[in-house]
Amino acid sequence: MEYDYAEIGLKAGIEIHQQLDTAEKLFCRCPTALRDTAEHTDEFSRYLRATESELGEIDRAAQEEMRLVRRFRYYTYDTVCLVEHDEEPPAPLNPEALSVCLTIAKMLAMTPIEQVHTMRKLVIDGSNTSGFQRTALVALNGTLPGDCRVETICLEEEAAQRVEDETFSLDRLGIPLVEITTAPCMHTPGDVQAVARQIGMVLRSTGKVKRGLGTIRQDVNVSIRDGARVEIKGVQELDLIAEVVRREVQRQVGLLGIRDELRARGASVDPAVTDVTDLFAETQSAILKKAKNILAVCLPGFAGLIGREIQPGRRLGSEMADYAKKCGVGGIFHTDELPAYGVTAEEVARLREHLGIGEQDAVVLVAASRQRAGCAAEQVIIRATMALDGVPEETRRMLEGGSTAYMRPLPGAARMYPETDVFPVSIGAGLWESIETPELLTDRAERFHRDLGLDEALARQMAFSERLLLFERAVAEGVRPVLAARTLLGTIRELARDGVGVAAVTDDEVIGLLQAVEAGSAAKEAIPDVLIELARTAGERARQTPEERVAAAIEAVAPAISAADLEAVVRNVVEEREEFVRERGMGALGPLMGVVMKEVRGSVDGKLVAQALKRELERRAS
Amino acid sequence: MTGTYITDRDGMAVVKLDTGYNIGVSPGAVHLLERPAPQPAATPVVVQNPELPELAIISTGGTIASRVDYRTGAVTSQFSASDILRAIPELGDIARYRSRQLASILSENMRPSIWQELARSIHAEIESGASGVIVTHGTDTMAYSAAAVSFMVKSPVPIVFVGSQRSADRPSSDNAMNALCSAAVATGDLGEVAVVMHDTTSDDRCAVHRATKVRKMHTSRRDAFASIGMPPIGYVDYPSLEVSLSGEAVRRGTHDLELADDLEERCGLLHFVPGMPPEILDTFEGYAGLVLSGTGLGHVRTEWIPRLSELIAGGTTVVMTSQCLHGRVCDRVYDTGRDLLGIGVIEGEDMLPEAALVKLMWVLAREDDPGTVRALMQENLRGEIRRGSR
Ligand SMILES: [Zn+2]
């Protein structure tokens, strides 16, 4: 369902996190290479604790994380040093990463900060061994198409990758990352997607950002009038952004509807928790039977609303369950969905009677050890109370399909202090002016179409491809653009899909092969076979030059055939099929093409074969 | 754009923006809007459990607790018992605490006169009933201070030195675990001076090191401290805080309380390097004692012999240790060594150079008979010399 977004006052902003493809990490000299976790060379474990702030308060998001005492385990590699282990002070800010960040800032028409200070941003979910993420504000106030605006660009270190639960892999920690934050200047789900796409294009235009799943992440901020600011973390697929925004609007509208109805009914939350373990002594419900303690929370006036859908697959009950799960319970039961899960209608009736509540009222059950059940019941009360106020401010995580689940409260603003181990970096006028901005990929696609004769789709595909640089080099070295583009985007990709190890074929070999085709020493049709041969023999004859390797591969799959040889082959083929030729006349040309091409094993251009065949058929006809 | 003005540094004004980020801007670009009244820090009082044994925490400058002001980004060290307990509440389950801030200096600015003050403070705390003492100390020179205290104070109760390798403001700091382990040791069965720090890079175990046999062996790692020439005298598991002491560890109550806080400060330690000219020894003219950190079994170049001989004749006690750190000095194997013995250099056995230095300061402050000095330097007084080497 589509809403009138102006009417409901949708405001959205995005935060884009993009990994940079630099040689070294942001604060150490380790490579920015990702590793297979099976290759880890060692592991160690740590606890994190939030430091008390000056006001005697611990950050609210941090406090949430501390609810559970957690020990974190880290995998380390031979490509990781003591900086990632939080066992050594950081090296100076990586100048290459700063330069890429400034390039992006300049492309977005931003104003650089005079002197960049690295900060420590408190993060105690275990993803940073130090307990903080190093981050620096680099530039402000950029422009975007439409009336939208980029607020800030920051240069940060990437967090460690979660392997499972409380285990993290240190290969990713410290990879440079830019964080681009827009103003809340988007007013429809489509706007959000378009802005994300535009920024993504700018980032890729630098040629210095990492590609592939997980290298770019989008966080979306959404609020509607009377709703609340909700931050949705980690949307990886660009195509889902609009849907995520749409569903968040739906959720907030749904929660506001529930609020209004609760108020109209005079609903309330009973702060008393009742132990009802004995009521379920004989239950057939596996979960309840297993639990040491079953606690009930009464929600007068909530009946029917806890089970109401607010997002595909999500109900108010799901929100309560998310809060309860922070205490280590598996989930909750509520009367809107009972009888079910082995709980009988008689048991529900007995529960209602025991608690002395009516049909308009709902009950939420939590079942676990005394401590966990108590904690979970308290969380249910907290979340139910929020329902009376509407939409809580939250950080949420995306579920498959674009719905979301509660993660933690929005972090408070005050959770940064200076990284005193890293000196500030001045961005003088000289440095800023020396930053060259690359051509936008959209401009480049247009140029490929206009100047190089690629059709629009191929031009765009080429401009946005990872093989862009190789394409430009091939064209500069005399290869026809269409041949280069079709080989790089078509042939090589198809071979890779068929399991050929084309990744082992070097750029120099690809260029050498394309040049050989242009020089007539190999046929266009032989390209796949020669690539297969180059892949097969990769690593062999290491002392040969790329040209020699290409020549050897061509010789192996398609030995050179002289014009005289070709004539002989053609004559042979035609003679062997004399009757067929007589019957079909010039019409035999098509069917015989394939036969001749097979004989010459693709080492002659199809056009030359066709000419030779045509001449021979004409000679016979006359 | 608005924010909080923090300071001027290197010609730039540092401003903390409302988003939390600091930036540096030209001072001319900053306009003061208002000067908010400083907000007093909230300092809830921590109630201590009177049933538990009382420990004294003496701070010298090492930080086991800090507080971050996220409004200004300022990090301040915390020294009062109440502040430390708020930062590391689990300490309250182990003991009750009284605290004393002796000094607030960087470890590298430590000096013998402060070692002496420290020894006197520790003595006073134990005399007034502390069942153990924790000394917080910067890690760079912690081993020197711990060794010095172990000569100056004989104690029936544990005296535990502790610090942190990673700053206490960070959530990952080793401060809390080290502090908890040190409190566990200080309330336990130990009866000597020890250093308690991380045993591995993981937060799983602290090692208890004998003060005269411990050395900082890494610039930055949590497990930088190592016992040299012997295994640690104990371990503390974390988070269970179970203490296990080796058979060698001196037990609580073995010694009576005794203070001997004189030190001869005119002592030096010289690390010999190849080609070092004999004239360098002129610096030590008039010194009461000189510890040499020699090569291998305990050597310096042959050209040093005459000048060293003059120094010794002039009244300087010269003790040889090895820059190998591991193993025992033996100057009877090679000619140079025999020459050194011939002019009166004392073999420092398997003492660490730093331990030998503070021991020499302590011995020379009490004895001036060269024979007695030599005998004491070669006798094991505080576990600094072992019968057999490893
Ligand atoms: Zn590294």
TrEMBL record, chain A:
Enzyme Commission number, as recorded? 6.3.5.-
Q: Which UniProt keywords apply?
A: ATP-binding, Ligase, Nucleotide-binding, Protein biosynthesis
Task: Report the Pfam families cross-referenced here.
Answer: GAD (PF02938), GatB_N (PF02934), GatB_Yqey (PF02637)
Q: Does the keyword ATP-binding apply?
A: yes
Question: Could you name the domain of life of the organism this protein comes from?
Answer: Archaea
Q: Which PANTHER family match?
A: GLUTAMYL-TRNA GLN AMIDOTRANSFERASE SUBUNIT B MITOCHONDRIAL AND PROKARYOTIC PET112-RELATED (PTHR11659), GLUTAMYL-TRNA(GLN) AMIDOTRANSFERASE SUBUNIT E (PTHR11659:SF2)
How does this polypeptide assemble, per the annotation?
Heterodimer of GatD and GatE.
* Listed HAMAP family: GatE (MF_00588)
The Swiss-Prot or TrEMBL record describes its family as follows: Belongs to the GatB/GatE family. GatE subfamily.
Q: What is this protein called?
A: Glutamyl-tRNA(Gln) amidotransferase subunit E
